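User: Modeling request: complex.
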Amino acid sequence: MSHTNALPFPSRSMARDGIPDQAPVLSVNGLTTSFYTASGTVHAVRDVSFDLYKRQRLAIVGESGSGKSALAMSLVGLVPPPGRIVGGSVKLGGTELVGLDDAGISKIRGRDIGLVFQDPMAALDPLKTIGTQFVETIRVHQDVSAKVARRMACELLAEVGVNDPGRRIADYPHQYSGGMRQRVLIAMAIANDPAVVIADEPTTALDVTTQAQVLDLLAKICDERGNALVMITHNLGIVEELCDSVNVMYAGRFVESSSTRSLFGAPAHPYSKALLDCVIDPATAKRGALPAIPGSPPDLSVDEPGCPFVSRCPIGRDELRCATERPEARTLAGGAVVRCHFASDTPGDAA
Amino acid sequence: MSNVATAPLLRVANLNKSYGTGLGSRNRTQILRDVSFELRRGQTLGLVGESGSGKSTTAACVMGLTAVDSGLIEFDGVDLTSLSKPEMRRMRKRIQMVFQDPNGSLDPRFTVADLVEEPLIIHGVSGTAERSRRVEEVLDRVGITLKQAQRYPFAFSGGQRQRIAIARALVLNPDLVVLDEPVSALDVSIQAQVLNLLSDLQDELGLTYLFIVHDLAVARLMSHHIAVMNSGQIVEAGTSADVFDNTTHPYTRALLDAVPGARRRAKALAAAGTAVAMEGK
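Assistant: Request completed. Predicted assembly structure:
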């Protein structure tokens, strides 16, 4: 087909097509996390499974309350009480992470899995210099002297674009701008050469121009170092630009998993389609007539029998099956995995 | 009355504002430099720019929440900078504001009905019956029932809370509404609902909006005119179509190019264009 040559990043999608030959660096199976609150049990992550391969950039996209951050926390053993992982497995290489004690997971977090959070000011200690925190991050996992660790930190800071790192390393977090702080966090996340970097809304707190720089940096770092990236975001523009595959999360479950190309070209699940329609396209949008998804996301403390999207769905609202029978994951001809009774991968057919 | 239709509702001219910084405020940091714009009745001016560009300070000056160094803020022919505090307080009945975060702007200890009624009490609208009539009317406009309004803010979703904040701003029948990033805390599926509501309200009530926004797609959609701010100055201004389609200032270009997805789409479009051209041969 002639149009394959017109893809923006043919090399990357080809690399991804070749990936399944290797073993996944991260393999998640049936992961389920719940929060046991006084007003009921919140089922934040429900039976989530995915494989992540070397060099892959995987997006997990969803709205607030979809469970995407609870998922990120579950991957690295940071689920805050009263939440806990109630089932499933997270395998990093050959190691099972679910059920590891604090000491065990602490050895892995920061060494094999790097983390970049939304708010760099909250992730950094305001009372310690960047250097102190950076050296600590390195020396927890690597047996090197403070002097060597500081030199490594300077090199990493230079790599992420901090000018004059020898001097800036002695500064405190507040002396850095928001974008620079996020660069520092990225440098720390890759300091121990992790197989996987998890970024939870890393640019949401940043301005659009700074955001573009940070996204470019993340892409460059992952390309050069070959680590896999899990990008958790609500911004579909970021998904389209940075990631090669995407999981759309709704009410704690992946409702569509596919390549970025296929999701943006022909979304299969009605929720994915509705979400893409909500992105304002300046060329076609009409004032006062923006497409909106009616209603609001479901309450995660109720484990409804049918499809969680049924009350907002344009195609299945009247179907008895949608209200009573939970859609199981099925693979469409185009390769997308979808949880919907009526989704079809022929564009236009679903409606 | 013809001058009412033609004269701008809000005219800001050569507005300057600085803050004292450092020990004992010995240094001055210039926040706004000669900011000038006009806003016509029933129209929307989108004020775009990055954080620190001065757009929120401009709004604070218009609202009379902070003193200006120099310049003119003329609202319906009256220079707001010359008003005393009580005079400004009375004037503020006609200039209302909607903030970014409805969780921060709605007191959790009040019911929604009480929250919407509060501005009426503050501005001395007497008569319980009259007040409840106006509360009901404005709640109805934003799609909240009176029964729902007996509940507290926590019982509402983010989009509904922002509707309540809008009702609170509109209950005094203001002429000018300053919208400070009213949808940036909302999910994309909810954003559209609130933007549609704001458009409808403007058309029905003839409201004038000063819309502070960093999302350029939203700015373009909602605004008749756009002013792009950078480092306290307006670097480009014009009609929405002018600013976005015939961008002249490099800063505006940089802002437009930085939108995620836009860069990749531009590349894909260019590539698709080439492919189509080749197929055509």
